[in-house]
TrEMBL record:
Keywords: Amino-acid biosynthesis, Aromatic amino acid biosynthesis, FAD, Flavoprotein, FMN, Lyase, NADP
Family: Belongs to the chorismate synthase family.
UniProt binding sites for NADP(+): 39, 45
Residues annotated to bind FMN: 133-135, 256-257, 301, 316-320, 342
Protein known as: Chorismate synthase
PROSITE patterns: CHORISMATE_SYNTHASE_1 (PS00787), CHORISMATE_SYNTHASE_2 (PS00788), CHORISMATE_SYNTHASE_3 (PS00789)
Known function: This reaction introduces a second double bond into the aromatic ring system.
Residue ranges that the Swiss-Prot or TrEMBL entry lists as coiled coil: none
Gene that produces this protein: aroC
Binding partners and assembly: Homotetramer.
Catalytic activity reported: 5-O-(1-carboxyvinyl)-3-phosphoshikimate = chorismate + phosphate
GO molecular function: chorismate synthase activity
Essential cofactor(s): FMNH2
Length: 393
């Protein structure tokens, strides 16, 4: 599978085209909209989420609730576009209009953003041409794409859930997820303001987010994604670009403001001996092969082991601050305080939703690379056969 997205933060719409989905996959706008609403939620979100009510329109590739096998096109309209038609319009400016008179031009790049380097790369003197596309607004349609991928995974008996494990050093008790299914974790997370499984930690997170907002500052954190029901042997060890963990890591780091990724116990492995890291292999007639622990996060040699896949990503504090840092005006070269755009004091809860959906896409894509099928029933049969094969190996 593959997809492309198009659209600017304050443009008329965000668009994506997905190619390679099997036919006969049930898809509805209602389920996608549920995930889009989750992305807009979470404590710490800014005023933009009060302006936009993201809903998807399926404009191609689906008929009567099922995919056709042809490309699926999704559109999310930007409600705020009506206030930006002159500023962001696609038509050339009239001859008597001075480009410098257009409102909201930006010549003061914000530290930590793509503004300055993006302007250098594409030759933009008005840095709005950079920030409009580099904005995390684009993740709206990436969540929509991931929601479609989750629909496919659900049909294959694979569940995926995300939650926040840490915000500015406040750590959730992650043992609370042990023994719980993805559905049980999701029920807890979706009722929590910080999308956290630990109510005590969540309350402290809320306080920290509110304090950061009052101070005009921003804070980051860590999110975790768990994939259950994954068949063993997806991915490959034979080439670097076929390793599943490498693909998942790239997906996580492709999210705006994400700067680190780990699997299983992650960087804790550097502080342990090998006997305290690797998962012992066990077998039972009922379950087949499994692991006594899951410290490696369900991945060995670039392949899924059949254990839950556990991947975490670290999100830096959002660089758009209401107490802006020093920058340099690219026109005058004079020092200035960086421009302020509408932003969030903490987007970690919302980012956990984005992480869930980019991981879902990579999991679904890896499965379709390995189990070729044009029709969903055929794909389901192949996955069931893979499970039978690996259990009895």
């Amino acid at each position: 599978m593959r997809y492309l997205t198009a659209g600017e933060s304050h443009g008329p719409q965000l668009t994506t085209i997905i190619e390679g989905l099997p036919s006969l996959l049930p898809i509805t706008a209602e389920k996608i909209n549920h995930d889009l609403k989750r992305r807009q939620g979470g404590h710490g979100r800014g005023r933009r989420m009060q302006i936009e009510t993201d809903t998807v329109e399926i404009v191609a590739g689906v008929r009567h609730g099922q995919t056709l096998g042809s490309p699926v096109a999704l559109v999310v309209t930007n409600d705020d576009w009506k206030h930006w038609t002159k500023i962001m319009g696609a038509e050339p400016l009239a001859e008597d209009v001075n480009p410098e008179d257009i409102k909201r031009q930006i010549s003061r790049p914000r530290p930590g953003h793509a503004d300055l380097v993006g302007g250098m790369k594409y030759g933009h003197r008005d840095l709005r041409n950079v920030l409009e596309r580099s904005s995390a607004r684009e993740t709206t349609v990436r969540v929509a794409v991931g929601s479609v991928a989750k629909a496919l995974l659900n049909e294959l008996g694979i569940s995926i859930v995300s939650h926040v494990t840490e915000i500015i050093g406040i750590k959730a008790d992650t043992s609370l997820v042990e023994g719980k299914s993805a559905d049980e974790i999701r029920a807890i997370v979706e009722s929590d303001p910080c999308y956290c499984v630990d109510p005590k930690a969540s309350a402290k997170m809320v306080e920290a987010i509110d304090e950061a907002k009052k101070a005009g500052d921003s804070i980051g954190g860590i999110v975790e994604v768990i994939v259950e029901g994954m068949p063993a042997g997806v991915g490959s060890y034979v080439h670097y670009d076929r390793k599943l963990d490498a693909k998942l890591a790239a997906a996580m780091l492709s999210i705006n403001a994400f700067k680190g990724v780990e699997f299983g116990i992650g960087f804790e492995m550097a502080r342990r001996k090998g006997s305290e890291v690797h998962d012992e292999i066990i077998w039972s007639e009922e379950q087949g092969y499994s692991r006594a622990t899951n410290r490696l996060g369900g991945l060995e040699g670039g392949m899924s082991t059949g254990m839950p896949i556990v991947v975490r990503g670290v999100m830096k504090p959002i660089p758009t601050l209401y107490k802006p840092l020093q920058s340099v005006d690219i026109e005058t070269k004079e020092p200035f305080k960086a421009s302020v755009e509408r932003s969030d004091s903490c987007a970690v809860p919302a980012a956990s939703v984005v992480a869930e959906h980019v991981i879902a896409w990579e999991i679904a894509n890896a499965i379709l690379e390995q189990f070729h099928s044009d029709q969903l029933p055929q794909l389901k049969a192949q996955i069931e056969e893979q499970r039978r094969y690996t259990k009895g190996f």
